[in-house]
Input
Amino acid sequence: MTNRNTVTYNSMISAYAKNGRVVEARRLFDQMPYRNLVSWNTMIAGYSHNGCVAEAAELFDRMPKRDAFSWTLMITCYTRNGELEEARRLFDRMPEKDVVSWNLMVEGFVRVGDLVSAFECFRRIPNPNVISWVTLLNGYCKSGCIVEGRRIFDQMPEKNVVSWNAMLAGYIRCLQIDEAYQLFMEMPERNSISWTTMIDGYVQCGIMDEALELFMRMPKKDVVSWNTMIAGYAQDGQMDKALRFFHEMVKKNRVSWNSVISGFIQNGFYVEALQHFKMMRKEGKDPDWSTFACALSGCANLAALQVGTQLHNLLLKSGHIIDIFAGNALITMYARCGRILTARQVFDEMVSVDLVSWNSLIAGHALNGYAKAAISIFQEMKKNGVAPDEVTFIGLLSACSHAGMVDDGLELFYSMSRDYPITPVAEHYACVVDLLGRAGRLGEALKLVKGMPIKANAGIWGSLLGACRMHKNPEVANVAAEKLFEFEPHTTSNYVLLSNIHAEAGSWGEVERVRVLMKERGVWKQPARSWIEIKNEVRSFSSDDSTEPRAAEVFMVLRVLNAQMRNIGHMSDSSLLDCG
DNA sequence: TATGCGTAGT
Output
């Protein structure tokens, strides 16, 4: 029984489900006077789309009649939600397997990285179509088996533009940019995806000039190619160019806004990120979870609690559920703003949490000096069956370091590789050096650094040098400084620090040695500059005709200054998020 | 304009 009414209902169910409103979709489904097969299928698709596996399965079992759509929808639901075994069982039960269902199973194996089963499954397909081939090709390329991928590509009986694009993306995923370009030139036809993939390839290799050249050559530039350039420049640290592209765009979409906002965050322009968040809303573009996460990260870095709280309210009001991403961003924001109890409250109210949530909570407590709490959260986390990772230990070690809990910290450090399969990286060593350094155990710290299996970086040596100042140890200071100078030969503050250590010890000969060193290296007449001095310098750029500063340099300096100068309290008073 | 599989952007 199908009439116009049924079709309307079906469209509405689909529309609701696609927007995450699965409860409303179900209410409509239950209200329908007549449900046809498509209604059932649409509802299952809706559940599948929103990760509601159990609900989909329940409907699938109850439906009066099933067609090929029903089966493949349910298989998709399982494979896309990480239940490959269930998918496999259902597939085995499927009465007449069509090529779509076969392709889904190949894709399911590809998703979990089981290429052997994927290939085996592919081989059994009676009449593989071009989609079957592309799915397999993708599997190899995504696992970095580019040679295998190429072999599949060469064996394909028919190739369309999608096949070529998949091979192109494969080369780019493996960062084989020359091979990619060669393939790009060989392509019998190119669509906008081919162009954008190639442009993005140059972006990923950090070759923005080539990306730009290709973008200019692109016949019909669409919003995605523009967005790729914006994200590319942002990633490359060239926010001025990213912003220019953004302003020149005629039709900006949500991704354009997100790209520029996230670019600001990546490059430390937090105020600008929040301003653009506001502008985005003013222009009637709805922020999504990614926008919110960026804005919250901006607040976290500025310690802008008032704005962050407004964002939290906005998030609740806009009907977004506080999912894992948003929840984690909120935890970090509140913790960085010193509201550790609120951070904990957000954590407790989250429907589900992941490792990042735990890590954010631990790091938040560490940051606020609650080392004991950080460790007890770690215990709680383990009790919940969540295994720690590198980030967890950075939080724990920094907690111990701030609280002077040397023995606990060392024990945690050693337990990393002993009890968990986690190899300490430079950041962990930096924490432990800091830990030992603050406690005055400089000899041990130096010994640790010298025995490191990886090369110590500037952060580690810098941390050691700082500790030498605190505990007046010129001998270790000389060793640390020498290493630090290898990384940062022109950073004045390092020399000044070393000089001060010797001065405090009364070793004027050593002080003089450092001064000579500075002079030799041309750093000695570079006083630490206040922002006012930098600002004047920037201003003088325009009147100084001997050197024409690059626009980018001026832009960067000005932005940093703006961010520093602006009063955050004032910013929230001017109701940053209030868009009338 | 109602439902299933493959290629691009935060």
Q: What stands out?
A: Residues 526-575 of chain A have pLDDT under 50 and may be disordered.
